Amino acid sequence: MKDVELRLISELMKNGRKSDRELAKAIGVSQPTVTRTRSRLEKEGIIKEYTMIPDFGKLGFEIACISLIRFTKELTEEEFKELRRYSKDLEMKNPGAVLMAMNGMGLGFNRVFISFYRNYSSYIKDMNLIKSIPNVDAAHVESFIISLGDKFHFQPITFSVIANYLLKTKEERT
């Protein structure tokens, strides 16, 4: 990735509301360069969306949760499509705030969910629904629960830290 692209992405991760003029000043290039680069990065799918990160606790969520899940077997493409349909049905019955649901591996698990809950009972209801999903090994669903009301979190959710890391590792590589 070119230096200008990396600096632009880092600035956008810190504040996606900056104008192209403000971004140009921050990274030391012309405004047309920023506009062209941003457009290309959007077309290439490197920039997927623009968003902000709210204080989830102030929005009424008490719990953030990282859940690890093990499927009983590797799913075929058709089983995966069926899982998506089933999950959408569950979502209709119990709307939740799932930030991420992805395949992975580690600690004997192969799926991870990051989600937010208004309270502990909605978390329990959701975990019971997850355990009812076909091919989920119900005995192997584990969660790490985070109280959003805790005033002593070490590092809250932010992309600024990642943006600064990208720039720092770029400098170390050159």
Short description:
This protein is α+β, with helices and mostly antiparallel strands and about 170 residues long. The protein contains 6 helices and 4 strands; from the N terminus they run H-H-H-E-H-E-E-H-E-H.
Write the layout of secondary structure elements.
Layout: H1 3-14, H2 20-27, H3 31-43, E1 63-71, H4 77-93, E2 97-106, E3 109-117, H5 120-131, E4 136-147, H6 160-173
Antiparallel strand pairs: 1-3, 1-4, 2-3
How would you characterize the overall build of this protein?
With 174 residues, the chain is α+β, with helices and mostly antiparallel strands. It folds into two domains: 3-52 and 158-173, Orthogonal Bundle (Arc Repressor Mutant, subunit A); 56-147, 2-Layer Sandwich (Alpha-Beta Plaits), CATH 3.30.70. It is built from six helices and four strands. The protein has a four-stranded antiparallel sheet, with helices on one face. Strand 2 (97-106) and strand 3 form a beta hairpin. Helix 1 crosses helix 3 (31-43) and helix 2 (20-27) packs across helix 3. The chain is globular, with a radius of gyration of 20 Å. The mean pLDDT is 87.
